[in-house]
Amino acid sequence: MSGITELDELLRSMRPKLIEGEFVFCTVSGHIADYVELAPLAPLALFRESEGLTLVLDKSVAESAGLSFEGVYRQITLTVHSSLEAVGLTAAVAKQLASQGISTNVIAAYYHDHIFVPANKASAALSALEAFHSDEC
Predict the structure, then answer these.
(1) Taking the mean position of all CA atoms in its chain, how far away is CA 17?
(2) What's the rounded Cα separation, in Å, for the pair 41 and 64?
(3) What is the pLDDT of residues 70-83, one digit of tens each?
(4) Distance of alpha carbon 71 from alpha carbon 89, whole angstroms
(5) Taking residues 41-63, what's their average pLDDT?
(6) How confident is the model over 117-136, as a mean pLDDT?
(7) How many helices (H) and strands (E) would you count in the chain?
(8) pLDDT-derived band at 43, boundaries 50, 70, 90
(9) Is 49 helix (H, G, I), strand (E, B) or coil?
């Protein structure tokens, strides 16, 4: 099943969903092969950068593991199957949230885009994203 590529259809069809829990972005140095112990951390996401590994973890897991982080985020999943070839979804979402003074960290996965916003602005972010649907109806 291929995802939607047309921006207006994506915005009209998406139903943003606020995911339970608080998440943090952590970093560890080295290579993934050096970290057999990452499996028990169950990272929501892992990205390899030249400076080290970025992990998106549940806040309580990061605290238990003694990993430092600089902010607490909530995850909003855009529940529409967006194609990896779609143009403009990330820009439209970022612009909408920026207009409300809300920073965004976006992870695009195969089926959905996942927006991480500061935990204290999660409700406002959800409302701002839901406006795409109400504007179109």
Answers:
(1) 11
(2) 9
(3) 999 999 999 888 88
(4) 25
(5) 89
(6) 88
(7) 5, 7
(8) confident
(9) strand
